[in-house]
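Hey team,

Filing this mostly as a record. A colleague (T.K.) asked me to run one chain through the structure pipeline before their review meeting, and I want the input and output archived in the tracker in case anyone asks later how it was produced. No errors, nothing strange. Just documentation.

Input sequence:
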Amino acid sequence: MKVKLEKYQGEKSGADPKKKPFKMFDVEAFIAPSHPKYQEYMEAANDNEEPKSPGKAELADTDDREAQNTIENYEDIYKSNNHGNEPKPQDIINMAESDPDLSDVELSRIKVQLAYNIKKVAAA
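Output structure:
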């Protein structure tokens, strides 16, 4: 199967006018029907969409794995300091707000992930 034909499309200038412009190409790829990406490209061609870029991990909905890991670390710390009691979301927020190593962006991501976790539990 041929995905696209290699064809020179011209040049496109970048943001910096001092640098050379980019050379634009369409690229041809041959994919055997037995290849795992074959079905994905066929579906994309049928939907008139570009296929997904390989190598980019996608998370479900608004799941932020880094923020979730931080939350889990705070939960472990809280449990060890409070005789195994489960922390409430506000306890996690208080711990995150008192952490001098967290930036405002990281704190926001933790709060968003906590809200998402609460919605997941309520929906289950």
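Quick notes for T.K.: Confidence is low (pLDDT under 50) at residues 1-5, 55-59. The beta strands are 7-12, 22-26.
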